[in-house]
Amino acid sequence: MLDPVAFHIGPIPVHWYGIILGLGAVVGLIMAIWEGKRFLIPSEFFMDLLLIGAPSAILGARIYYVAFRWEDYQDNLWDVFKIWEGGIAIHGALIGAVIAGVIYTRYKGYDFWRIADICAPSLITGQMIGRWGNFVNQEAYGGPVSEEFLRKTLHLPDFIVNQMNVQGTYHHPTFLYESVWNLGVLILLLVLRRRSFMRAGELFATYLISYSVGRFFIEGLRTDSLAFHGPAWLDSLLDVLWSPMLLVFEPGFLDPAYGNIRTAQFIGVLIILACVLFIAARRLLGYANMKYSDPIKPQLRYHRR
């Protein structure tokens, strides 16, 4: 098993989880700066956006997670701040990052959708890399599987197989499934952004749709899903949508104490529907005139005197 602590600075432990998340943020920043050069956007803009967006994303991700697992923290409030032990939710991170992004881009005079399009590949890259922090912490894994499945069917190396042995039981490496899916999403976005038919805002919407599709199916394998109590018809609908996976896999255990609806699946379906409607409505109503490749010029809102 891997030690979640990479090294110590005096008495302070530095965790692999934080290092990996930081690496994802830096790689994403470099990608955004590189693409931003095509539109003559200064690199300082993206650096500042990261400095504002990253803390907002982490805060949103933690608040979101703790809110759905409040019973685990209500008697140990100090544990709320132990983010190095894991326990963040990507949907909360997206909420926090989008709020910060809207405010900052508006302040700088840029159209939010144009900047969101540029940052979409960076976001999925950060998620792709960040999932390996879950790997080190032995979290975000799926239901039990055999060692043979990991070695002979998936052909995984020893360091992954060994880390998927949690208290004597091997588990689906759902962190890996999602990381590989995110790589596919990244390739899709890099290809689409050079296509002339892409309109402003649509690359970001495509990122949300494609990520949500993969997350919906992978989430059903996990055993640590955030959940809530919902109506039986919604539970049945989500089960029907996930049912193609039953041809190959068994669903992961969902503790009834937390609920019967996996939050990530429900939110994912809402995101997919909202983004499809967003793209269709803008095209039908004539609001999608600006292309991804069109120049980006900030509209100054404030003037110094």
From TrEMBL:
<comment type="function">
    <text>Catalyzes the transfer of the diacylglyceryl group from phosphatidylglycerol to the sulfhydryl group of the N-terminal cysteine of a prolipoprotein, the first step in the formation of mature lipoproteins.</text>
</comment>
<keyword id="KW-1003">Cell membrane</keyword>
<dbReference type="GO" id="GO:0008961">
    <property type="term" value="F:phosphatidylglycerol-prolipoprotein diacylglyceryl transferase activity"/>
</dbReference>
<protein>
    <recommendedName>
        <fullName>Phosphatidylglycerol--prolipoprotein diacylglyceryl transferase</fullName>
        <ecNumber>2.5.1.145</ecNumber>
    </recommendedName>
</protein>
<keyword id="KW-0812">Transmembrane</keyword>
<comment type="similarity">
    <text>Belongs to the Lgt family.</text>
</comment>
<feature type="transmembrane region" description="Helical">
    <location>
        <begin position="261"/>
        <end position="281"/>
    </location>
</feature>
<dbReference type="GO" id="GO:0042158">
    <property type="term" value="P:lipoprotein biosynthetic process"/>
</dbReference>
<keyword id="KW-0472">Membrane</keyword>
<keyword id="KW-0808">Transferase</keyword>
<keyword id="KW-1133">Transmembrane helix</keyword>
<dbReference type="InterPro" id="IPR001640">
    <property type="entry name" value="Lgt"/>
</dbReference>
<feature type="transmembrane region" description="Helical">
    <location>
        <begin position="88"/>
        <end position="105"/>
    </location>
</feature>
<comment type="pathway">
    <text>Protein modification; lipoprotein biosynthesis (diacylglyceryl transfer).</text>
</comment>
<feature type="binding site">
    <location>
        <position position="131"/>
    </location>
    <ligand>
        <name>a 1,2-diacyl-sn-glycero-3-phospho-(1'-sn-glycerol)</name>
    </ligand>
</feature>
<dbReference type="GO" id="GO:0005886">
    <property type="term" value="C:plasma membrane"/>
</dbReference>
<dbReference type="Pfam" id="PF01790">
    <property type="entry name" value="LGT"/>
</dbReference>
<feature type="transmembrane region" description="Helical">
    <location>
        <begin position="174"/>
        <end position="192"/>
    </location>
</feature>
<feature type="transmembrane region" description="Helical">
    <location>
        <begin position="198"/>
        <end position="218"/>
    </location>
</feature>
<feature type="transmembrane region" description="Helical">
    <location>
        <begin position="46"/>
        <end position="68"/>
    </location>
</feature>
<feature type="transmembrane region" description="Helical">
    <location>
        <begin position="14"/>
        <end position="34"/>
    </location>
</feature>
